[in-house]
Amino acid sequence: MALLIALLSVLQCAMPAWANMGRPWRDARVSAEPQGFDTVRIGSESLHIDLSGLSDESAEAKVYVDYWLDNPGPAIRLRPVFATGASEVGQFKATLDGRAIAARPLDLPTLPRSWQPPQTTPSLSDEQPLSYEVLAPSSLGLDFVLPPGRHVLRVSYRADAMQRKGYGPTLLYQFAYVLAPARSWAGFANLHLTVSVPEGWRIKTSLPLNDEDVQHADTSRDSYHGRYPGLPADAIAITTQAPPGIVYRALTVASVLCLIAVVFGGGVVCGWIGAAIARRLRRDGKRRRYVVWPYALTTGLAWGVATLCAGLAMIYAPDYVLPAGQAYRYGYGQALGSLAICGLSLFLIGIGWLVTRMAAMRHLRDAATDGA
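Predicted structure:
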């Protein structure tokens, strides 16, 4: 019973602990369509949200947008303003028909109402949607003259996704792109959307992609596409996460079973070793008690070391088979679990010494009684 209680305590301590920790997420930054196309019609837009570079050290995403601008009249001057995660002008690139356009940083006193992001993104399970936390965006402006006819404005910039911990053994990422400013444009024909994630990641979006709603389940695809006539919604909300994989699940179960086998099987092994020690001493003609304890102590040490190795493997080993760059450490769970394992190992050293010694002495007494 004492061993069972100790083992349950270890398993409980090995679970993540949440007290006295900072918040388990990293805020995103607002990414949105630009303001300033009130006098020009957008014949088509190609939007590519690239989340393939997400990792434990970086929640950086990339946004690539091509705008086909239709100007049926004379040349006009446009000054669109973009909301981005680019903190420097060098992280923002824009071209008109292949010619570079210089961007300038802006300091907007308030966030325009049309740039307000959604409050949630979809959950990867059937649970409630996940809250979406953002910081104020970096505002960058362009200033160029649009000649008559049709032209291509190409923009690319950095966009920060939200990184969240605590929803499984891997990091979870959320990203939203605000489409609402397009309602103020002179016209908007259609949207071609591409979302890229690392291959095999789970993804769920607020808009249908690949002619079907991207829902649960792991997938082998890494790019998803959608075509929408007009503006499909005020924002595109995305949630994605690397699945832990079958190897992680198998190793987690196997490591727990291994620890249980070592803890409970160790006592039985100590009894067997005690009996073997007694037989060895009888064969050598030694029955003095002080001869037993070195063997018993060695057996207890072996049990303690085996428990320590199995316990630490249970706590740490599964993380090493998670997708690269997606494991995280949050809370004091692993540290507390390691301390509990060390305490249990020291406890079992004493128990192992006692069980082995008692088994050996009992067999020696039984042998002496039979001899008498």
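Summary: The longest helix spans residues 246-284.
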